[in-house]
Design goal:
This protein has 619 residues and is mainly alpha-helical. The protein has 27 helices and 5 strands.
């Protein structure tokens, strides 16, 4: 039975689908997670450094900072650095915080907004996803599909409580774009879905340029349908592409100061993306004009030839004018930063590691397990469907073909792949549930037995790959495995509250991933932050801690006029600062209290001293 076919009326079929059940279950799970870890919210903690940088940025805006100010707050002292983020998520944080302002301070309201925004967005994403797949799945299967979504680990990682960054909004917009794209392919003559597709695509790329992948997939799917079936029509695709282009232009004008409109940047919305996304509008408008004069000009094979020629022309123009575009948003990252920082970021790790086959198996099963059965089912669906339904499933297939390889390349794409693979996986579960229902109907089983059996099938489909991944993780864990125990919350609070240290802003050289929270919780300036634009800060931090020559380390201190040096005594980042046969590094010396004369240890509390050491520069 294909997904678009209705199942016959059988036992339990007449019951109304429990549409709200997955959403209510998700809300319950979120409450349980808060209940099990109340300390995070009580201590005003967030999950990762991005959240602290984001809140500091929005606080600055709320305090009267400039709309066009893209500087990271008190980072890369004394030179400063900029961020690749845009304003839509900042506005969303402010919108959620404003109702709380009558009851608390703006900074406190922003914290609660940041801590809770992604759980709210997760509920919205689940609802949007259940809406998005309505044309693809049978009505009675959608609540079960919603339950499957609750067990997607990469998705939940981006929507966690205390994660105050824009990844949740990016995924929500991806789901919305997917939903309107499906409707643009299945609608008969309604231009509403086409306009909505253009608007969703534009807002997505405004929030993050990684949406270009999804936009390319949706435009490709629509173009394939246009070439094969003349649906949507040329005029409809012209409207879509112009809506996309015009809103992107509006986004650029809103986002950037007038004197920065022509600045070329690849990691956030810029004139580059206005040019690239204007090419589809130019192509379809040109075809529409030619078809108006010569109605049979682009029919049949000629339409395919025109499309291929247009694609080559567009890619050639981009390669000629913005050749670095095809190298991705990280094209401007210094190769040295890639080695000392980017390759160590968990989100950009490859899933395949030939040196660690067990880890590779665990990561693939845990994050892409649905592909094992979902991909064959997806192929079967595409081959068995007809007309607009086939075109809609081709969109899902093309998106899957894009995001699964991207996930193998970098883990940060896994959430997209999970959201796509769970759709054909849900079709398979629906087929199994149908077979089970028919079997019980033939044997005259009781309703209670049918319900229990169906629940068991849903649990098995939901948990299988999570359990296998967890078992592989236990097999993989080495006896000497040591998690990162350096949480900067305590020491950052100390730096911001100690009467001697906080009476005037200091310049602090600390670990890369500690910088954002120190800048957020104290008035001090930091050197390194974990962002690709802070090249000098990352390289100087690495150069200081790994220096074997004290003069080289002292030069960095004096050049930046550093006041305090803070280090964590253990953890993942600390490992890269240790010497390896080339003599003791500054980090090694500070660990064993072989302190240079120009540094003076500062006493920390017993709790803080268990993981951190603080030194004051002597001048």
């Amino acid at each position: 039975m294909t997904p678009s076919q209705s199942a016959p009326q059988t036992l339990g079929q007449n019951a109304q689908p429990l549409w709200l059940f997955p959403i209510l279950l998700l809300v319950l799970l979120q409450v349980v997670m808060v209940w099990r870890n109340p300390g995070m919210l009580e201590n005003r903690q967030l999950l990762d450094p991005d959240g602290y940088t984001r809140l500091a940025r929005v606080e600055a805006l709320a305090d009267g900072g400039g709309w066009y100010d893209d500087a990271a707050v008190r980072a890369n002292v004394p030179y400063g650095t900029t961020l690749h983020w845009t304003r839509p998520f900042d506005l969303l944080l402010l919108a959620v915080a404003l109702p709380l302002v009558p009851f608390t301070s703006i900074n406190s309201a922003l914290y609660w907004s940041g801590a809770l925004i992604n759980p709210i967005l997760l509920v919205m994403t689940l609802a949007a996803l259940m809406w998005a797949v309505k044309p693809l799945l049978r009505r009675e299967d959608i609540p079960y599909f919603g339950v499957l979504v609750l067990a997607l680990p990469a998705v939940h990682a981006y929507f966690g409580i205390g994660r105050a960054d824009h990844h949740g909004l990016i995924l929500l917009l991806f789901v919305v774009l997917l939903g309107v794209g499906v409707r643009a392919l299945t609608a008969e003559a309604d231009r509403g879905p086409l306009i909505a597709t253009g608007l969703a695509a534009a807002l997505s790329v405004w929030v993050s340029v990684e949406a270009l992948v999804a936009i390319a997939v949706v435009l490709l799917s629509l173009t394939v349908s246009w070439v094969a079936r003349d649906r949507p029509g040329t005029r409809g695709l012209t409207i879509l592409s112009f809506c996309l282009w015009m809103v992107v232009i509006i986004g650029l004008v809103v986002e950037r100061a007038p004197n920065a409109l022509l600045v070329v940047e690849y990691d956030r919305l810029s004139i580059v993306h206005v040019f690239v996304l204007g090419l589809p509008a130019l192509f379809f408008a040109s075809v529409a004009v030619m078809e108006g004069r010569f109605p049979t000009w682009s029919q049949g094979f000629r339409r395919l030839a025109v499309t291929v020629a247009g694609a080559f022309f567009g890619c050639g123009m981009v390669a000629l004018i913005f050749p670095q575009f095809f190298d991705g948003p990280y094209v401007d990252v210094d190769p040295r930063v890639v080695t000392v920082w980017l390759e160590r970021v968990q989100e950009v790790r490859p899933l395949i590691s030939p040196e660690h086959p067990l880890r590779t198996a665990r990561e693939i099963v845990f994050l892409l397990g649905h592909a094992i059965v979902g991909l064959p089912v997806l192929v079967w669906i595409v081959l068995s469907q007809k007309g607009s339904q086939r075109q809609a499933w081709i969109l899902i297939a093309l998106a899957t073909c894009a995001y699964v390889p991207l996930t193998l390349y970098q883990a940060r794409w896994a959430a997209y792949a999970e959201l796509l693979l769970v759709i054909p996986y849900a079709v398979l579960m629906g087929i199994v549930l149908d077979g089970l229902r028919k079997m019980f109907a033939d044997f005259g089983a009781s309703a209670a037995l049918v319900a229990v059996s169906r629940a068991g099938v849903v649990v098995v489909f939901t948990c299988t790959f999570l359990v296998i991944g967890a078992l592989l993780h236990r097999l993989e864990a080495a006896p000497g495995f040591r998690p990162n125990v350096c949480s900067p919350t305590g020491v950052a609070t100390y730096l911001g509250s100690d009467p001697h240290l906080a009476r005037a802003p200091r310049r602090v050289l600390a670990f890369v991933f500690d910088g954002p929270e120190i800048a957020y919780r104290s008035p001090h300036f930091v050197v390194a932050t974990p962002y690709q634009r802070n090249t000098r800060g990352i390289l100087d931090t690495y150069g200081f801690f790994t220096a074997t020559d004290e003069a080289q380390a002292r030069d960095i201190i004096e050049r930046r006029r550093i006041d305090l040096v803070l280090l964590c005594r253990q953890g993942n980042e600390a490992e890269q600062y240790r010497g390896e046969g080339s003599g003791m590094t500054i980090y090694d010396k500070l660990l064993v209290q072989s302190v240079p004369a120009w540094l003076r240890p500062r006493q920390l509390s017993e709790t803080l001293a268990a993981t951190y050491s603080l030194f004051e520069v002597v001048r």
